[in-house]
Amino acid sequence: MYICNQTVTYIMRRDVFQAIADPIRRAIIELLASESLTVNQVAEQFEISRPAISKHLKILSECGIISFNQVGRERLCLIQPQKLIPAFLWIKQYNKLWEDRIDSFENYINQLQSKQQKNE
Amino acid sequence: MSDLADRTATIEKTFNAPLKLVWDAWTQSEHIVKWWAPKGMDIKVIEHNFEVGGTWKYSMLMPDGNEFISEGKYIEIKVQERIVTRADFKPMTQNVELQIHFEADKDQTKFIFKVIHATPEYCKQQEEMGFYNGWGSAFDRLDRFLKNSIN
């Protein structure tokens, strides 16, 4: 039973990083970032099978990156850009993270230094 | 190893403070909480065992409520001279090595900081995930998209 629970927890862990870990899903996100498309329209853009596209869309939906809107007989895929923010933040952080952190460290030791000099 | 330069980011600085102060500020948790986290982010020091083989773990709360975990294990410590530690920045940049070198220069301190990514294979994998090229422009587009949605 314990093992079962572990498995379920793992499968349910869907987040933006999982969404963007696959090149097809990144391409789908790029596509849907510029316009909302139906499932068929998305599938037409790729050479992989329709079921494979459906699977990627399902994962994106489980990650909260897209939502579906039923329009007549078609399902429209809508991007949820706010869900991409954690990844977005992460990349911005990554690029400048260390420089900013070292700058922040330098500011801090300058503060410490001037505090000590005042006390002397 | 010829590839080492390709997977190493280096920052060199001279701090206008004596070595002891710089060393203490870098290695003591009451100081670390003051500078480690980016502006506007809260940091918690969960573990900080500053000794060879000791582990460290910091948690930062992102504005959206998610936690950003940084953790690692000290490999080498030479007091007021050198620190080598493994580091993981979850969920994305894992398995890097940080090397920090301190050297007194009169009242100033020379500081060399290196982030060494694991292996060329690992870097390639990250590249395939798009983080070093291409993906940035996709995010620029999304950035504009977000701004347009807000306006």
How does this model look, in words?
The complex is a heterodimer of chains A (120) and B (151). Chain A has helices spanning 2-12, 16-19, 23-34, 39-44, 50-62, 85-119, and strands at residues 37-38, 66-71, 74-79. By secondary structure, chain A is mostly helical. Chain A is rod-shaped and about 80 Å long. Chain B is α+β, with helices and mostly antiparallel strands and 151 residues long. In chain B, a hairpin with a 6-residue loop joins strand 2 and strand 3. In chain B, helix 1 packs across helix 2 (29-35). Mean pLDDT of chain B is 77; it is low at 130-143. Chain A binds chain B through residues 15, 17, 20-21, 23, 26, 29-30, 33-34, 81-82, 84-91, 93-94, 97-102, 104-110, 112-113, 116, and chain B through 9, 11, 13, 15-17, 21-22, 25-26, 31, 34-36, 38-39, 62-64, 66, 68, 91-93, 111, 113, 115, 128-131, 135-136, 138-139, 141-143, 145-146, 149.
- The share of residues in helices of chain B is 25-40%
Q: Give the amount of beta strand of chain A, in percent.
A: 5-15%
The class by helix and strand makeup of chain B works out as: alpha+beta
Regarding quaternary structure, what we see is heterodimer
- Work out the helix count of chain B: 4
By DSSP (H or I, 4+ residues per run), the number of helices of chain A equals: 6
The amount of beta strand of chain B, in percent, is 35-45%
Mean pLDDT of chain A: 81
Q: Which stretches of chain A are poorly predicted, pLDDT < 50 over at least 5 residues?
A: 1-10
Number of strands of chain B: 7
Instruction: Give the helices and strands of chain B as they follow along the chain.
Output: EHHEEEEEEHH
- Straight-line N-to-C gap of chain B: 51 Å
Using the CA coordinates, give the radius of gyration of chain A.
Answer: 22 Å
Briefly note the structural class of the backbone of chain A: mainly alpha
The strands making up the biggest β-sheet of chain B line up spatially as 1-7-6-5-4-3-2
Report the end-to-end length of chain A measured between terminal Cα atoms: 65 Å
